[in-house]
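Quick look at the format.
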Amino acid sequence: MYQIFTANPKTEKILRKNIEFKQEIKNKLDKLKENPYKANNAHTLHGELKGKWTCWLGANIRAIYTINEKEKLIIIEAVGTHKIY
């Protein structure tokens, strides 16, 4: 199983705020820990964000993250609507 970390304080604050109010997001983060390559409709990004992954966390909330396979880490870099792209 992977561990989840945030890349910066802003992302940490947004993620914590959403988790407090939505059990669905907590459940999806748990699924992401199990398989960051397939959970929550995960897929790779293209263009400037090539090498990063994205998945749905809620109705209009997405996460952009990188995966460190060697250390089994998921580093969430941004959380928000499609505007985060």
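Next, a different chain entirely:
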Amino acid sequence: MKLEEFDNFKVPKDEMQDVELSHEDPINLHSKKLQDDLQTMGMKIQLHEDNIRFLRTLKDKLVDSIIDLQVILGKYHASNSPKIENKDGSDTQSEDKPSYQKAILQQENSAASILCHLKTNPKMLASDPTLSEDVLGVVAELGHVEDDTLGSLLSEYLGTETMSAIVCKTYNGVKSLEKYDTDGGINKTSGLHGFGTSLGKTLEGRFNVISLETLRPYSGEFVADDPQRRLDIPKPRLPNGDCPAGFLGYAVNMINIDRTHLFFLTASGYGLRETLFYSLFFCLQIYKTRTEMLQAVPCITDGALSLDGGIIKRSGLFCLGNRGDMKATFSKTSTNSSLPDHYMESERQMKEMKWKKEKMLEDMRRERALLDSLKLNFEKKKAEFVQFLAEAAARFSNLYLSHFLHTGSHKLQLQWGDQPIDDSGQEIVQSSKEWLNVLEVSGSMLVVVGHISHDGIVFLYDMHQRWIGDSFFRGLKEMGIFCNTKFVLCITLPLTAL
């Protein structure tokens, strides 16, 4: 509300005679509203500051716990994963490459092949931090199976292009693999194309890339106490309520994720099984024989496989003929990949703690943004309040006393309209035209101290140095008398009156 809007505010005289006014003056109401707003904003600022301190404390504790677990896991890796350094500075975990890696490397000039070459040369890969940190690998190397036959079937079901697809954590990884010129053409000197050139290879054709953060994840429960965190998907049921004969399980749960990626979590808190493999297989069912699979057709929704080669891509789509020769397949789980229980639990805890830390950092950034916004609004509201007080003081300074009567040297007597103030302490004593002291005026218990400025403005303050209340001005304006109100009063006093 602007100060000018208060000028036409009128209060009936009968209301002015009542000390206990039922309605407050709009000036006081607006002033009180501004003060209440400042107090509320101050409390919110304090709340966000407390939240940030609390989150920072929790984050620091998590960081300490993560470091402790990293030390434990580091000792295990140091004793169980000796590295063999090559002459070119690259290193591998063993002399023999896994079968899937050999198959991928044989795909000359493919994106998967170039990526596998890069992984054996960490120094070259480190030249692109986004690619090295965001790219997890190729689909074929991120999962393993207990049986070679099952691995071949699952690989055939997905197809070579999907098995060779590159998996990234976020879309930033996708962008790092291929960059474009201003005209939309592929920049052959950057991304995976640039690395291929450095390796003496030319990336040909298209290649698939999967961004985990853009996949729709599985949102159900997990199998209790399962170290592989398999999905708790209900078993299929025939119309009679029985589970189909020969049903072995769901493909998404028959994939074993190695220890390197078992506890990987996206920014939203989802792992590889509920993102990558669920999006690839959904509820693909596995049966022992083709005959049993065909008998279960009524309850097959997302396709099915049988260990003797039967494939149903989806309901109503059957794949017939001889099995193809798949080069890149899911490899068989190594017998040496078993880990002690305490290791699995420690790594699970560490991954979970890292995810919680990232969520806390996000919460802290959000709290900081809210705090900065509140502080900015608080300063604006404070400036508005100060401006309101300044405008009020300037407006009130235009009130003039009706008469100034000289009663002697350095003395003034006040008179309101036709009603002179009595002689009991009503004098304003002027000392060198600089200071005024009024002890009591007309029984109103008004105690003020005033100062005359050089431009003739008299500033009167109550004993608590507070500016005048609205009821005084209503009395001054409507009745011409003082009211029992402590105040700070600004009155323009012409120097000629002195």
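The chain has a mean pLDDT of 72.

See the schema section for token definitions.
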